[in-house]
């Protein structure tokens, strides 16, 4: 990675983290409710009977109401569990107790499935720091989702989940960075041509 690209990514991530940190409780609650409606609409439109989605941290767009809805509808939901080797395992979401995985991220306290468990889902919802107008996704720098997406033989539709202000015109990118098929924000769903 060039030092200019690395610096640009670090600076943008810091700015985005700060913007997330200063969102008010009211703004977060409104975003959660609107985002849940958008995620439900996407899952219904795609007819997803199985999906993968992350368990949000306090600063991320809140996915838990959507995950509970999906389980109530009988949708099979896999959530990522990060490993020390930089890969993702997967576990079934049951809205039961949570633990922290190898990277301190929330994970379900249940049976862990291997990395290939995600190959059978109809829809992938992934976290992001930002997404640009071409569908380039910038994560938080650990590379878990880029590795997963880059290694899949049969990739289902992949949508990043971000706040509205995190769709930007362009992002610094490297060869390993992966594009997404769309983005979901509280204000709507946007698809990208691939």
TrEMBL record:
- Residues involved in ATP binding: 9-13
Family annotation (InterPro entries): FTHF_cligase, FTHF_cligase-like_sf, NagB/RpiA_transferase-like
Cofactors demanded by this protein: Mg(2+)
Question: What keywords would UniProt list here?
Answer: ATP-binding, Ligase, Magnesium, Metal-binding, Nucleotide-binding
Enzyme Commission code(s) on record? 6.3.3.2
What does the entry list as the binding residues for substrate? Answer: 55, 60
Magnesium listed as a keyword? yes
Q: Name one Pfam family in it.
A: 5-FTHF_cyc-lig
GO biological process, alphabetically ordered = folic acid-containing compound biosynthetic process; tetrahydrofolate interconversion
Keyword 4Fe-4S listed? The answer is no
Catalyzes what? (6S)-5-formyl-5,6,7,8-tetrahydrofolate + ATP = (6R)-5,10-methenyltetrahydrofolate + ADP + phosphate
Q: Which GO terms describe its molecular function?
A: 5-formyltetrahydrofolate cyclo-ligase activity; ATP binding; metal ion binding
Output the superkingdom of the source species. Bacteria
Q: Which Gene3D superfamilies would you find in this protein's record?
A: NagB/RpiA/CoA transferase-like
- Signal sequence interval, chain numbering: none
Q: Give the protein family.
A: Belongs to the 5-formyltetrahydrofolate cyclo-ligase family.
Name listed for the protein in its UniProt record: 5-formyltetrahydrofolate cyclo-ligase
């Amino acid at each position: 990675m060039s030092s200019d690209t690395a610096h640009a990514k670090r600076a943008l991530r810091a700015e985005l983290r700060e913007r997330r940190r200063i969102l008010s409780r009211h703004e977060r609650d409104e975003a959660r409710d609107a985002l849940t409606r958008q995620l439900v609409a996407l899952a219904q439109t795609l007819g997803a009977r199985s999906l993968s989605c992350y368990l949000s941290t306090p600063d991320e767009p809140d996915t838990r109401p959507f995950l509970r809805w999906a389980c109530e509808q009988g949708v099979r939901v896999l959530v990522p569990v990060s490993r020390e080797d930089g890969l993702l395992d997967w576990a079934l979401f049951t809205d039961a107790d949570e633990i922290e995985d190898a990277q301190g991220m929330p994970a379900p306290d249940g049976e862990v499935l291997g990395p290939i468990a995600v190959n059978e889902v109809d829809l992938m919802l992934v976290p992001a720091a930002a997404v640009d107008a071409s569908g380039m996704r910038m994560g938080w720098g650990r590379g878990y989702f880029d590795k997963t997406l880059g290694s899949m033989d049969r990739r289902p539709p992949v949508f990043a989940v971000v706040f509205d202000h995190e769709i930007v015109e362009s992002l610094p990118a490297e060869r390993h960075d992966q594009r997404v098929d769309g983005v979901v924000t509280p204000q709507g769903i946007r698809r990208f041509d691939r």
